[in-house]
């Protein structure tokens, strides 16, 4: 199941471009009552109606019509060197990825019930090298303290614009910047891509051919915009210039919803 249904994509695009139902109706010639029904999830537009709305919102008409008709869902397997765990009680994704030795790992977004994460690490069992945090929202970082206590040698990595969210631990976090790399194994590295918009410090982490996108990019959608200094255009630009420039086969592991690939998102995400 996708994180965002058609109505979510519709609402995010409306907020992003600043058009209300009346303005959309005026631009498209569609009855305002119909636009309001689609925005509330009470009805779904036809293909032609979806295409008209998409053009007014700056979305891809064909991809938006496909979203309305639920014609696409990615079928992408979890990479062999990645393990997924739920962030109960949050509806968000946590991940571990590891080196060929099967012993050294990095954690993406410590959140939810700490014991779930600790069990996932113990199953390796892994020596935790990094705690990588994609952004400041609680459903992605509220278990940082207990995980850091359990693995005091693991380095916390978080963009400085969001790092205050982890309190006193912020002073020990690696202040990584866009494009910088962290050594991981003898001949590998983790690269951080700063992708502001969802939050000002939102970041993605690239390891080999897998990108952990946090809430910047979901399968078929983008994250909501909650940045204080960054906004809708920033998140779209970040996806275009930093994510879509990666190899098409790059697997995308989002903070919510199923995995996808760069190729799948280029072909099916209505925002692009």
**How many helices does DSSP assign?**
10
Question: Helix fraction?
Answer: 25-40%
- Summarize the main sheet: 6 strands, mixed
| Relevant CATH superfamily of the largest domain | Ribonuclease Z/Hydroxyacylglutathione hydrolase-like
Q: Mean pLDDT across all residues, rounded?
A: 97
Using only C-alpha atoms, the radius of gyration works out to 19 Å
The order of strands across the largest sheet is 6-7-8-9-12-13
Q: What name does CATH use for the topology of the largest domain?
A: Metallo-beta-lactamase, Chain A
- Report the CATH C-level class of the largest domain: Alpha Beta
- β content, as a range? 15-25%
Total domain count:
2
Description:
By secondary structure, the protein is an alpha+beta fold. It has 2 domains: 6-69, 434 Repressor (Amino-terminal Domain) (Orthogonal Bundle), CATH 1.10.260; 82-268, 4-Layer Sandwich (Metallo-beta-lactamase, Chain A). It is 33% helix and 20% strand. Helix 4 packs across helix 5.
In short:
The protein has 10 helices and 13 strands. The protein is of the alpha+beta class.
Layout of helices and strands:
Elements: H1 6-17, H2 21-28, H3 32-40, H4 47-57, H5 61-69, E1 82-86, E2 93-98, E3 104-108, H6 114-123, E4 127-132, H7 138-141, H8 144-150, E5 155-157, E6 181-183, E7 189-194, E8 203-207, E9 210-214, E10 217-218, E11 221-222, H9 232-243, E12 251-254, E13 260-261, H10 262-268
Parallel strand pairs: 3-4, 4-5, 9-12
Antiparallel strand pairs: 1-2, 2-3, 6-7, 7-8, 8-9, 10-11, 12-13
Helix pairs in contact: 2-3, 4-5
């Amino acid at each position: 199941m996708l994180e965002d249904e058609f109505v979510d994509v519709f609402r995010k695009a409306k907020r992003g471009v600043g058009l209300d139902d009346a303005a959309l109706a005026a631009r498209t010639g569609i009855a305002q009552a119909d636009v309001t029904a689609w925005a509330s999830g009470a009805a779904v537009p036809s293909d032609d109606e979806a295409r008209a709305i998409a053009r007014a919102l700056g979305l891809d008409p064909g991809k938006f019509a496909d979203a309305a008709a639920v014609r696409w869902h990615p079928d992408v397997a979890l990479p062999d060197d990645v393990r997924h765990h739920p962030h109960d009680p949050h509806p968000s994704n946590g991940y571990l990825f590891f080196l060929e030795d099967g012993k050294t790992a990095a954690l993406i977004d410590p959140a939810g019930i700490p014991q779930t994460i600790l069990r996932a690490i113990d199953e390796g069992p892994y020596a935790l090298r990094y705690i990588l945090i994609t952004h400041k929202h609680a459903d992605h970082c509220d278990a940082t303290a207990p995980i850091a206590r359990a693995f005091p040698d693991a380095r916390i990595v978080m963009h400085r614009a969001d790092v205050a969210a982890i309190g006193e631990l912020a002073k020990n976090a690696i202040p990584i910047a866009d494009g910088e790399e962290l050594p991981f194994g003898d001949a590998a590295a983790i690269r951080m891509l700063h992708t502001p918009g969802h939050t000002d410090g939102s970041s993605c982490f690239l390891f080999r051919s897998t990108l952990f996108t946090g809430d910047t990019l979901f399968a078929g959608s983008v994250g909501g915009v909650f940045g204080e200094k960054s906004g809708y255009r920033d998140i779209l630009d970040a996806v275009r210039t930093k994510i879509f420039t990666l190899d098409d086969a790059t697997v995308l592991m989002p903070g919510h919803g199923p995995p996808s690939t760069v190729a799948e998102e280029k072909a099916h995400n209505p925002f692009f």
